[in-house]
């Protein structure tokens, strides 16, 4: 996650070119959101005229949406500064699911965001937590809420504050580790890692560093064939989406900037590249300045869910019939075409 104010060339310029068009007609002092079609291809994903539904409000910072199909289906989402994970369903509304969700009794002099951030399910249906305050990747049994720390160190040093993750077909967990959970971020005296890394971890092994060169790695996802890795960089000086070609060993063989968001950010659009998901057809659904962007695998914009607040993350749910997204202090829902599976 990242809040506003915190710290091929043609393709890279595309989102910047849209900067002046985003959010036109929105009131500056009130929340607003709408679906915007950028190409005809978007009609197969979201029907024209589809509204944006607000399903939860009053959150300090909404993050980590995750649809859980078990038990009739429900949405989990995190609130890192409040140290809470909440649960929402159409029938029961919103309720606290985990509190604390991250580090219990975290010292506010050390931790800016003590709670859980990104959420995922492993292949056994257990909850995975990017524990910002606990500085670890955790696994939680959904039936009894028993927690297990899976990995919390790289080369003997504690992570900064794990932020988001993706579970691969082989069960490996790919995750990012920026310093957002620490007060002072890079300057925090509690920081042990000299980098803000992108990692992969497999059961029974140790964390493997994928890239240690990014200033603010954030959202992460693999392409459907798992031959490409996407990572967002939430650095206001150079906000972007990176793409990595992966070899058979899962290590990058090449990398490039897929999309630059600098022009849109510099134009004052709220938010930065943040959380992302990849649909079964390879479409990227990614937080960008101005809202949640739908992009082709090569970074071309298809459509946008525009918000006048920072959008943090998104998740497919309801069997692919809905997209849930977190935007500042609320959670939103947008219906997707029944024939388009996310």
Question: How is the secondary structure organized here?
Answer:
Blueprint: H1 9-12, H2 14-18, E1 33-37, E2 53-56, E3 63-68, E4 74-79, E5 84-89, E6 93-98, E7 116-121, E8 127-131, E9 136-140, E10 147-151, E11 153-154, E12 157-158, E13 165-167, E14 173-177, E15 197-201, E16 208-211, E17 217-222, E18 228-233, E19 240-246, E20 252-260, H3 262-266, E21 276-278, E22 284-288, E23 291-295, E24 301-307, E25 311-317, E26 322-327, E27 330-335
Antiparallel strand pairs: 1-24, 2-27, 3-4, 4-5, 5-6, 7-8, 8-9, 9-10, 11-12, 13-14, 14-15, 15-16, 17-18, 18-19, 19-20, 21-22, 22-23, 23-24, 25-26, 26-27
| CATH class call | Mainly Beta
Strand neighbour order, sheet with most strands: 1-24-23-22-21
- Shape, per Cα inertia axes: globular
**Poorly predicted tracts of residues:** 1-29
- What is the third-level CATH name, the topology? Neuraminidase
Number of strands: 27
Q: How many structural domains?
A: 1
Under the CATH scheme, the architecture is 6 Propeller
Number of helices: 3
Q: Termini separation (Å)? A: 22 Å
How large is the share of residues in beta strands? 35-45%
| Backbone CA Rg | 18 Å
Order of helices and strands: HHEEEEEEEEEEEEEEEEEEEEHEEEEEEE
Integer average pLDDT: 91
What's the main sheet like? 5 strands, antiparallel
């Amino acid at each position: 996650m990242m809040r506003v104010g915190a710290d091929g060339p043609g393709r890279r310029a595309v989102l910047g070119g849209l900067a002046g068009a985003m959010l036109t007609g929105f009131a500056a002092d009130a929340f607003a959101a709408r679906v915007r079609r950028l190409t005809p291809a978007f009609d197969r994903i979201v029907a024209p005229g589809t509204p944006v539904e607000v399903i939860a409000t009053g959150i300090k910072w909404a993050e980590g949406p995750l649809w859980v199909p078990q038990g009739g289906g429900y949405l989990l989402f995190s609130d890192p500064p409040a140290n809470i994970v909440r649960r929402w369903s159409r029938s029961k509304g919103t309720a606290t699911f985990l509190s604390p969700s991250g580090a219990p009794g975290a010292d506010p002099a050390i931790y800016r965001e003590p709670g859980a951030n990104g959420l995922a399910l492993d292949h056994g249906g257990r909850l995975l937590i990017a524990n910002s305050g606990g500085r670890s990747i955790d696994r939680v049994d959904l039936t009894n809420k028993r927690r297990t720390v899976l990995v919390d160190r790289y080369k003997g040093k504690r992570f900064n504050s794990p932020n988001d993750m993706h579970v691969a077909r082989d069960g490996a967990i790919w995750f990012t580790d920026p310093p957002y959970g620490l007060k002072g971020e890079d300057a925090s005296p509690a920081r042990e890692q000299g980098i803000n890394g992108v990692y992969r971890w497999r059961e029974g092994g140790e964390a493997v560093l994928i890239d240690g060169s990014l200033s603010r790695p954030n959202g992460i996802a693999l392409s459907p064939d798992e031959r490409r890795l996407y990572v967002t960089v939430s650095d206001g000086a150079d906000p972007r989406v990176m793409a990595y070609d992966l070899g058979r060993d899962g290590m990058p063989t090449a990398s490039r900037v897929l999309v630059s968001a600098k022009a849109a950010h510099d134009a004052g659009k709220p938010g930065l590249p943040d959380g992302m998901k990849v649909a079964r057809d390879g479409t990227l659904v990614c937080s960008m300045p101005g809202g949640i962007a739908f992009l082709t695998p090569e970074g071309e914009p298809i459509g946008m869910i525009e918000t006048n607040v920072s959008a943090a993350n998104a998740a497919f749910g309801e069997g692919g019939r809905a997209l849930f997204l977190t935007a500042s202090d609320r959670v939103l829902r947008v219906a997707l075409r029944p024939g388009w599976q996310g």
